[in-house]
Amino acid sequence: NSKFRGVDRLKLIALILKARISEGGCQIDCYKLIKNKCMISFFPLHDAVELLELEDKWLQACQLPWRQNVTAVKDYYGEKIGMYFTYLGHYTTWLIYAAIGGFIGWIGVAGDNSNPSAPVIPYLCVFIAVWCTLFLEFWKRTEKTTAMKWGMVGFEEDEQDRPEFEGEVTLSPVTGRPFRYFPRKHYLF
Predict the structure, then answer these.
(1) Residue 181 DSSP symbol
(2) What sign has the CA pseudo-torsion 62, 89, 72, 55?
(3) Are 105 and 120 in contact (CB under 8 A)?
(4) Element (H or E) spanning 170, and its range?
């Protein structure tokens, strides 16, 4: 019984490993150790008890896409993975409407002896165009609402370069901070 979720404990451990000694951390740069071949890899291990709880909450037969317990996924894997599964549920739900419209269009084409110029085709095109617009607009709404609920508004993190990446250090024209850049003159094409 911890006050922190499993994903929060893993984030805290990673922060302790990276933090300076003066800040109470270990000041270990795992990416540099991998690059220098002192370490092969590092990754968190699953918590067997929490994983079983997640499976009980989330993996259910015949679960409707709009009823999946995405919060349990977020609490175990983190907000980014939770948002990904929120998108999958939203997309799968909206595909039901597209499938119904496509099926009706298919019936109309089949009823016209499989004529590719069947009168139903323009209506199907308009339906799909409207479906695409509504899908995207409703996803934007769902994404922002979920981000607000999960405290992810304005959440951006600096991506770590892969240890194998080698580039020239240059200043960012946007932020003015140094970053690694792979110059165009070294491209293969």
Answers:
(1) E
(2) positive
(3) yes
(4) strand 168-171
DSSP string computed for 6-34: HHHHHHHHHHHHHS-GGGTS----HHHHH
pTM of the prediction?
A: 0.76
* pLDDT tens sequence across 9-28: 888 888 898 888 998 889 99
Residue pointed to by tokens 């079983």 = 52
Task: Please answer whether residues 119 and 111 qualify as being in contact, where contact means their C-beta atoms are separated by less than 8 angstroms.
Answer: no
Closest CA to 152 of 86, 80, 91, 81: 80
* Spatial separation of the C-alpha atoms in residues 150 and 145, rounded to whole Å: 9
Asked if pLDDT for residue 87 goes beyond 90, the answer is yes
**Do the Cβ atoms of 147 and 83 come closer than 8 Å?**
yes
Residue 57: which residues within 8 A CB-CB, separation 6 or more?
69, 72
Strands 178-181 and 168-171: antiparallel
The secondary structure element, H or E, covering residue 1 is none
The whole-angstrom separation of Cα 72 and Cα 53 is: 9
Q: Hunting for tokens 């291990």 — which residue is that? A: 45
Q: Cα–Cα distance between 125 and 110 in angstroms, integer?
A: 16
